């Protein structure tokens, strides 16, 4: 046993003190470009920290994982608002005959804590699909064909039955805001493989962002380098990517060349300050981004067959389909973490079916079923599914009972809901965990959001209980200081 | 000093780990004596029985004191490493076995405690005493015997059961009694202009270095102007200062800048970073906090008036509990209402504790440089702060009326807002619009309490409000003296308990071991680019020690002797020779002092987000220097609005004049931050920000090149210079002078002219577009964005 092999892969702080100081902006500052500087031999001699000795490290440079993980990228299909489990993937035959009956049942949601409620029977029939014989509701006829690639987790639990805090928990692990998002953690842990594109991308619904907006992809207490970048699926993909009107690419090149002349003159007597070189390089990188980002979101090279696969040929599916297809293109280009929102804004603009369940879920499932199935099939046929972890779910699920005296609307339910994962080393055709016979509370093999997060990190080769970031006197972890186990039952 | 927390810890430990036999920490001295003997005769002490004796007497107490807090609970041992059984040591944690029986000297446990590997140092609170290391080393050599079976659990005395502050704790640099250190002598006695220079030069000389020469006058006026006002000097300012031959030209400049109302805007922003200032609640509705901007204006006004720092703190903590509260002092208590608030928490009681935690955590980090918040669930793992200290400190805030009473998502505004007379007392706020509310009342965001009595405060097991343990009373942290708060029951008709005032009196007392040190360190940080301790919110063991603790203590004593005057401290620091040093490293400095730990040259810095935006506006001539008032809503790109859950209702509107106001007046909405400021590393709005990141990213370059705001300002700059007419060379010079506040060199003019002509000739730009492009280039210069 040598010292080399004993060297810990994580440390007390998860980082060395020196890194901590850089990132705390103490004596030094961190620069997101030094890796590029080194790669390009671009003022390479200056890629040294302000201390004149330590090599600069690009916080986003690709980093080795803790161990070999099958997944290289994540696509998180976020069903914002909370889809109803008993109407989608959690088949509860006993619930149908109870429709309209008032029963004793403990629930907690937007309407508060209740001890009885009127059952709303599932509004769709279920059919068995695939070799595994998975029961799937008629909301997802296309996705039904993919069940042999999917692992369903029926016993998810979260801490908050209200959107604000539940969204934050699903996205950052904590119900209080201020912590980095899952995508920030992944980029912090693994870096990015394509410096011409952001490593953490978010695509929103045309009706608007989720509540709390950018808090859902914020890097919290980590530097801004790790925050999510919103990419638009049409028009200019990234904020301020297009040169101002009248400024051609060639004209901008001329401007940048002169800018660089001024800046190099300025940097020459200040050669010990590598930030200056990094800032010069950042303009070159921005110029390259302008070239590569539009290409990444340009679907003109996609075949008719592919477009149909994602539902781009139909009005109801073309919008979400476009974002799913973009997600695949970003995966192909090395983007680590892509979050695609189904639903935005408030109420029925997302899956938050408080009023008319049928209308709401028909609309949102109808818009996403074909695109998601298309995404899974496309990833698979291109050999990308093994290295791409696809996650589906909302911030919570819904109750088996009605929220109001009239109608089919269901209230929030954080005590039992369904999520699923596919690809990235996840077993297909399995279902783990169970809710009670009414689909209300997780009873068998309960899993918490933390376990989901732990599974995601593990599949990427990151140890969820070791990946830490020193902040406010504590080794902060996505899964909390007390740690969490991945969901081993679904790992291939 | 002992503090009994018996009962609460026992309940939080798993039954298997509960104490069965007390092990007194005070036995350490005896053990040490014994160990010395054992070491002396180490060659003879080699029997298993000796090993067990060594364990019982010299090793176990060390493990208990330093390791068991994280490595004794089988359910949640850090890294899976359990140190309470021999089997646990052999099995080890995620890094592998903790001990090697075949090669004891290579044991990982030794490796960790020896503190030689920066990657692995245990315990995190600091290296063990040599004697303790010797004992562990010797014990491992003897096979690390525990006595009994391999799996038998060693009895674990619950950490913190009898909490004791040790002499070592009291010797920590930032809690030692504050004494005025002697000013060190230096070889080059001519160099120092004030004692700050002696402290720095003594260390620079000891390293065999010489300090750099003074920076040139243009560099100095730029440095001082940004430092004190966050705004650039004009070319005329620069040239007047360059011409000023009076011996006190520098002092006059500093006095002029300190007297500027923009001083408060710049230094107020530092304070707003610290107190996580924002004007909304966060969460689903991200509601606007009513009149939060008055607190921002209060901070700016107080700093401009050079309000003594003790008063500055007291008003924020307890401005309503003063003998004679004023409108301004009540506005100051908005400090206690700045945090995030969940308007529909799952667990209302927990949410109320979260709100108080946010106040306590911010207060202790910002005012005391202490991470008391770490002791919410368990004793602090680095500093001598037992969990009971957390709750005793929390109880000072327990009387505060909660944000929300009852169910639903409606907050309870009467608990945190008020309408009060605009000129209550000698308020200094008479400039506020008298017609703001009915009958000269103004709306304020403020603290309120539920009455003269606070609810009881209990220690909460693992921070869980549903698992209360023993009751505690208000008290100060043990390590800072545990003084008597001197609380008396409030009068029956009192609106508050008076507790916060007691806390404020203690924090703002000249004798407080931390308050003056913490602020002196911050003042240094904002002037010199890095704190004497680089972790200004934590002067404890998880922070970084001061590079010049003697200088810090000297500054801290100076601060109280100058009656807490910030402006006096600015003057002191800025009139040192050290502040006027060039940022060019002298020969040998990079090699001998690579991290500039010695301050052997001035630290270059990039402008902050606000400084960049404000400077762009200053260069374009659009900057609106109006002071104070409600926040403004400069146009937000449509792409950014689309990220809000209600894009159409997310943001307000502003006239061009309002949109050109200084950045400190931009509305701070937690879920929708200004994209340019956010990209340039503005402070996080949810927790206290002691030091800003400085990142360099391509997305910043995109915004600076392509953003609509930048295009508009470049066009405005071009119009102001271009419109003046004259030769192209003169106009190019004029634009450069407006941006950089210096005369253009011929080569620079030629380059600018070259670009403009190229754009016209090759790209078909008309002359105004070409000139605007050149103006945009200037606003992107490193020289513009960086200070020497």
Could you explain how this protein is built, in words?
The complex is a heterodimer of chains A (492) and B (788). With 492 residues, chain A is an alpha/beta fold. In chain A, strands 1, 6, 7, 8, 9, 10, 13, 14 and 17 form a nine-stranded mixed beta sheet that branches. In chain A, strands 2-3 form a two-stranded antiparallel sheet. A two-stranded antiparallel sheet of chain A has the order 4-5. In chain A, strand 18 and strand 19 form a beta hairpin. Chain A is globular. The two termini of chain A are 31 Å apart. The N terminus of chain B is likely disordered. The interface between A and B is large, with 112 and 118 residues.
Quick structural gist:
The complex is a heterodimer of chains A (492) and B (788). Helix content of chain A is 29%, strand content 18%. Chain A has 492 residues and is of the alpha/beta class.
List keywords for this structure.
heterodimer, A: 492 residues, nine-stranded mixed β-sheet, 18% strand, B: 788 residues, mainly alpha, two-stranded antiparallel sheet, two-stranded antiparallel ribbon, 33 helices, globular, disordered N terminus
* Oligomer class: heterodimer
Shape of chain A: globular
Largest sheet of chain B: 2 strands, antiparallel
Strand content of chain A: 15-25%
* Residue share in β-strands of chain B: under 5%
What would you call the structural class of chain A? alpha/beta
Number of strands of chain B: 8
Query: How confident is the prediction overall: mean pLDDT of chain B?
Result: 87
- Pair with the biggest interface: A-B, 112 and 118 residues
- Helicity of chain A, as a percent range: 25-40%
N-C termini distance of chain B: 50 Å
Enumerate how many helices of chain A there are, as a single number: 12
Gyration radius of chain B, in Å: 30 Å
Counting helices, strands and paired strands, the structural category of chain B is mainly alpha
Spatial shape of chain B: globular
How many β-strand stretches of chain A?
19
The count of helical stretches of chain B stands at 33
What number is the mean pLDDT of chain A? 86
Segments of chain B where pLDDT lies below 50 for 5+ residues?
1-45, 155-160, 427-437
Approximate helicity band of chain B: 40-55%
